Amino acid sequence: MTQRLLFEERVLFSPHLPKAVNQLLQQAVAASHAEKPLAEKLFKQAQQLDPGCLQTYFALYKFYFYQGRLQEAEREVLAGLGQAARQGEFPVDFRQLARQAAEWDMYASETALFYLYTLKALAFIKLRQDLADEARAILAAMEVLDPDDKSGVSVIMQLSAALEPEAG
Questions:
Q1: In whole angstroms, what is the distance from residue 106 CA to residue 167 CA?
Q2: CATH code of the domain in which 124 resides
Q3: From CA 116, how far away is CA 123, in angstroms rounded?
Q4: Which of 55, 59, 89, 109 is most buried, judging by how many CB atoms fall within 10 Å of its CB?
């Protein structure tokens, strides 16, 4: 227990995180390498403590992704997208959101930016699942939703392009 206190601020999450949620996330991060079941339990406790806290979805989908648990990562990504859309009061469906892009400023809030980062994560997960067409559909929407590349989606776009079979 004393050892975990050394890692109390291991990761900087949003400064607006409730203290109890941050403590659980910090403990989960500290446990994530050596004690994966404990880490997962702590990540989920943080999410249950505050289901509206977007950082808990981020932490969980990253945790699952790095373990190669892509279906669980995707589940958390989709839940995070849903939560962000509810909080931002914009459509959860990225296709609909892209069609209505002129109505939304996706750079106006942390919630909208979280949506963009999480949608980028979904595209990457789809690539890892060998679902290139689904990834490309997400990336096409991202070109509309994030024209200034504030989410860094261009890296995933380059990866997707590199994975495309040679035409010809």
A1: 34
A2: 1.25.40.10
A3: 11
A4: 59
Report field, pTM of the whole predicted structure over 0.90:
no
Residue 4, in any domain of the structure:
no
Start-to-end CA span in the chain (Å): 60
pLDDT, tens only, 76-104: 999 999 999 999 999 999 999 999 999 99
44 lies in which domain range? 15-163
Count of domains for the chain: 1
Express each pLDDT in 104-129 by its tens digit.
Answer: 999 999 999 999 999 999 999 999 99
Confidence of residue 11 (pLDDT cuts 50, 70, 90): low
Cα 137 from Cα 118, distance rounded (Å) = 15
In a domain, 1, yes or no: no
Helix 110-128 to helix 132-145 angle (10° resolution) is: 160
Q: What single string gives the DSSP state of each residue in 105-160?
A: -TTSSHHHHHHHHHHHHHHHHHHHTT-HHHHHHHHHHHHHH-TT-TT-HHHHHHHH
Q: If 0-12 CB within 10 Å is exposed, 13-18 middle and 19+ buried, where does residue 134 land? A: middle
Cβ atoms within 10 Å, residue 149: 14
